[in-house]
Design brief:
- This protein is an alpha+beta fold and 98 residues long.
- 34% of the residues lie in helices and 19% in strands.
- It has four helices and five strands; from the N terminus they run ααβββαββα.
- It has a three-stranded antiparallel beta sheet with strand order 1-2-3.
Length: 98
């Protein structure tokens, strides 16, 4: 077992809050988180877009940082934040009420 495999297995069984669960569920369905940064590179605005293009208003900077710390979301190459494999493990299945 290499070090990378071991690091990925850490924190898989942790509990997440209801707000984090809701955000991960939207991301798992195809949503994305877009950031707007200021001149000093601080985050000015966070927006969570659903797969249909609606903006979800329940995302704040604290929840965003928690999800990032748990490695449930990630951005690559300046693109919007998406859910990771670990985030998919953390999210519990919900019935789609369509």
């Amino acid at each position: 077992m290499c070090a990378f495999e071991r690091r990925d297995r850490i924190n898989i069984t942790m509990d997440i809050s209801r707000a984090e669960q809701r955000i991960l569920h939207l991301l798992a369905q195809g949503g994305r988180i877009e950031l707007t940064r200021g001149e000093d590179r601080t985050i000015e605005k966070l927006q969570l877009f659903t797969r249909e293009g609606w903006v979800f208003s329940g995302l704040d900077i604290l929840t965003f940082r928690k999800l990032k710390q748990k490695r449930a979301i990630r951005s690559q190459g300046g693109k919007p934040y998406r859910i990771t494999e670990q985030g998919l493990v953390l999210v519990r299945a919900e019935q789609d009420n369509r």
